[in-house]
Every structure is written in C-alpha cells, then in structure tokens.
Design a protein that fits this description.
- It is built from one helix and ten strands.
- 26% of the residues are buried.
- Strand 7 and strand 8 form a beta hairpin.
- Strands 1, 2, 3, 4, 5, 6, 7, 8, 9 and 10 form a ten-stranded mixed β-sheet that branches.
- 4% of the residues lie in helices and 59% in strands.
- It is mainly beta.
- It has one domain.
C-alpha cells in the first residue's frame, strides 16, 4: 500500500492561455521543481512536483471543453480544483467560473485516471485562484 501524504493544503494558482493552441494552463505561483505529468484524459494533464504534490494543470482544446469562444479564456478565470490521489487512481474535480460577456458561467470538469505512476496517497489537495 502506498504511503498516505497529509497535505490538505491550498495552493494559489495563476493562469495563462495560449489562444493559438487553445491551451489553458493553471500553475502554482510559488516556485516548485517539476517531476512528472499525468495525463488524466484526452484534454486534462496534471503536473506534479518532486514531492508528488500537484502544482499545475493544463487543459487542451479548452474552448471546446468549456463551450466558449477562445477570447473569453483570455480573461481571468476563477478556479477551484480538488485533487485526491488514491493507491489505484487520481481524481480531479474542478469548477471554473468564466466571464462570458457580462455573465459569469460556472463550468465543471471531473476526471479520473489510474495511478500508474504510484504517486503516494494524497487527499484534500486544492489548487485555487487568489
């Protein structure tokens, strides 16, 4: 059984959007040493640091996933990402609040992937906007 890491920690993230490639990136504002990426599904990639803590998330084809025009993803997005790592799987549940014209639209993303990298168990990890 993988050791259980107790972080229950909130990491503040910043964002970047590559409109040309339609890629949205959320990353920890604190410095960290990158270790590996885990592809959660065909559109979501989670980056872990050297301590196996999730520190960044990349969303490919973001405008298609959220059903919005790319221009709306260039604005600041409120985000709350919850990550649980279990012995056999990694689960990510996130809410993104995107400003579309004058209305804020919440968009939910839920993905789960096998823990093939044997990342230690970690519960209650949050990446969130300031």
């Amino acid at each position: 059984m993988a050791p259980k890491e107790e972080y229950a920690k909130r990491i503040t993230v910043d964002q970047d959007y590559d409109i040309e490639n339609d890629t949205l990136f959320f990353y920890a504002i604190e410095d960290y040493e990158y270790k590996k990426s885990v592809r959660m599904d065909e559109k979501v990639i989670l980056d872990f640091d050297k301590n196996n803590v999730p520190m960044a998330m990349e969303i490919l084809h973001a405008s298609k996933l959220f059903g919005v025009k790319p221009i709306f993803l260039t604005r600041t997005i409120d985000v709350d990402i919850n990550i649980d790592v279990e012995e056999t799987y990694i689960k990510l549940e996130a809410t993104f609040v995107i400003q579309v014209w004058r209305q804020k639209e919440p968009k939910d993303v839920k993905v789960q992937a096998p823990n093939e990298s044997n990342i230690p168990i970690l519960e209650g990890m949050r990446l969130a906007s300031a």
